[in-house]
Structures
1.
Amino acid sequence: GENVEQHPSTLSVQEGDSAVIKCTYSDSASNYFPWYKQELGKRPQLIIDIRSNVGEKKDQRIAVTLNKTAKHFSLHITETQPEDSAVYFCAASKGSNYQLIWGAGTKLIIKP
Amino acid sequence: EAGVAQSPRYKIIEKRQSVAFWCNPISGHATLYWYQQILGQGPKLLIQFQNNGVVDDSQLPKDRFSAERLKGVDSTLKIQPAKLEDSAVYLCASSLGEGGGSTDTQYFGPGTRLTVL
């Protein structure tokens, strides 16, 4: 079945620097790749997603890139701020009749 | 637009007791999901409904867990009897779920934190 691997498990960056989190997936039929942010004790919230018909998507300081050939996608956060500290999850899906397969999460720590 | 509602927010029970969680999805969302999230891990799908039908319950421990969505709106998840390892946050999510191969955003409720003693 589908498997999503996420790296690193913990990422510590200086405030103002960029952070990159990478995920790889195994099922070439996957066509939807969301990223969720989960702050401590709170619900996961979608921050950005990408579909397989595009290679990159940006939303202010956040961007996601997708390489279908290599079957990996990445989250890029620029000009990191203290409020970016959270656990970030990537996921992959083949469609709404299929479940989202989640990565194990990356704890992002922004150092002041 | 109101979000996904869940209750209760917290529940403490002893092992072998029963517990039930309730979820009200966003109005108009056909697809509803129940996830279990153990501390330090990602969400694990327990069951997915589209309207009142089950799409995927392959990871639901059916000997103790049950879920229903009788009228295709609200849903309840029950554990009977509970075990220590069931301590987790139970998240409900919903999406438009129009099917046809498209995938849409899942919106999560605040979760129910279950502690089994």
2.
Amino acid sequence: SQKIEQNSEALNIQEGKTATLTCNYTNYSPAYLQWYRQDPGRGPVFLLLIRENEKEKRKERLKVTFDTTLKQSLFHITASQPADSATYLCALKGDDKIIFGKGTRLHILP
Amino acid sequence: DTGVSQDPRHKITKRGQNVTFRCDPISEHNRLYWYRQTLGQGPEFLTYFQNEAQLEKSRLLSDRFSAERPKGSFSTLEIQRTEQGDSAMYLCASSLGDLRGETQYFGPGTRLLVL
């Protein structure tokens, strides 16, 4: 069956360190993969998109990698700040719609 | 504000009542999505529209759920005979439907509580 898996447990990272979140998927061949940020009580906000022919994408302190052989994407936040604390959702293009993972809660500790 | 808006933001209803939610997408976006999200889960796809045409409905969407986008602009999601299991955040998103990469812009959601 098709699955998208993200760390279900919260991730605690010390301020200033790099946070790395993982998204694994099975039985998909997505044309692209996206990462969204969601704060409590709010809708998700788009952060980055990476296509199947791209290995890495960067935006300011954010970096995303995409390994279609491993069926995995890694999302990195460098020089993390308490304001980066949120839930981060991985989403991929499945058939004709976008499918979301459950998200990983990230806590940046001051 | 030219983002996606949803109304109401919160709704409390009694089991068995009907509820209707509205979504106003970003004006030039031709795709509109509805999702349901419960605590600790990611958004779960319900249905989507390309202009006024409803192109796909999730198998999870029972007959009690119906959505419309009559003029290809705003959309409504109606839940008939609500059940306690319908309690969730209902999210609307819109996009340009660009096959090169579809960025979805989400509204703030409508939080439904069925008593």
3.
Amino acid sequence: NAGVMQNPRHLVRRRGQEARLRCSPMKGHSHVYWYRQLPEEGLKFMVYLQKENIIDESGMPKERFSAEFPKEGPSILRIQQVVRGDSAAYFCASSPNNGYTFGSGTRLTVV
Amino acid sequence: GENVEQHPSTLSVQEGDSAVIKCTYSDSASNYFPWYKQELGKGPQLIIDIRSNVGEKKDQRIAVTLNKTAKHFSLHITETQPEDSAVYFCAASLQEYGNKLVFGAGTILRVKS
């Protein structure tokens, strides 16, 4: 019974490149949440998705960031034209019941 | 929107002592309050949670208390062990799924042996 799977674990991008982060929820979970954790800070909500639908994107930056959760396949968090300030750990969580289960995260470094 | 404050930011205790971390929240509509433990380089791991219809919950050495009137909740760890050293986060949500979690800033707990 695999948990929430995120890949890659580490991602290095040069300024201006695109970053794609993947999240496969726990089996049977259809709700996915993305959070960002800046160094030595708490987790900040970004977006909540169900299959093929964005439910709450109130935490997403207005530009360069997008997320999807297609009918088949993992959820994708996409960051276009990355800047140094995007360097952070990005965590995905899934539900629907017994609370939220987090993956191990993707650590994005922009150089 | 919801705002969660967490204190202290760092906590050092001697092995075997108790540790208490406190959080306050602002939205009286919040009904679900989980606590997460995060070790270096890993994702947050749920250690205990409490719902608004319960005032206290205990799981072995870990307990959580909730005061809905005062809008605060606390994590209590008894008989601390070195492996309890980690960052602990409290969070609040409208319900246990289907809504975002709002996190506190975290508490670095160091258990000295």
4.
Amino acid sequence: GNSVTQMEGPVTLSEEAFLTINCTYTATGYPSLFWYVQYPGEGLQLLLKATKADDKGSNKGFEATYRKETTSFHLEKGSVQVSDSAVYFCALNSQAGNNRKLIWGLGTSLAVNP
Amino acid sequence: AAGVIQSPRHLIKEKRETATLKCYPIPRHDTVYWYQQGPGQDPQFLISFYEKMQSDKGSIPDRFSAQQFSDYHSELNMSSLELGDSALYFCASSLEGWETQYFGPGTRLLVL
């Protein structure tokens, strides 16, 4: 079945460091891929998405490229800030007939220190 | 822009009680999804509705039921609550044919 695997956290970085959170997936067909972010005590927010191979999603300085050949959708940011401290979830959109649901990775906690 | 609204935001119940969670999707969205997120865990899909009909079912216990109403809002009814039901419950909405799900802020349920 479809699945998403994320690198385990927690990830701790200093401000202005480079961030990579790895995400790989297993899926039939051509799913869309998403990164959601959950700030402490808050709900899930869509960070970025990509709907087909080689698409690059970007938002708030974060980027991820849909790589079909490596089945990956790694999240990157060139210079993290303290305010980026959150849990990041990689997800794919699994569709069977008319049913559609998100398949989630386990989440990666990021802590950015000043 | 209008977002998904969930109520209540926090709820405290005792074992064996019932609870009702409400979700108001983004205007014109016709699909609603319910998720349960335990502490430190990823969201678990419970159930979804499209045009007031159940469209998919995940790991929703038999003690729970849900429906979508004519105005597209949805309610998750939880009976015979157990300690293990303590979690954050998210509702998400989307427009059929558009695959991006937008999440509400969640309802934090604590069962004592």
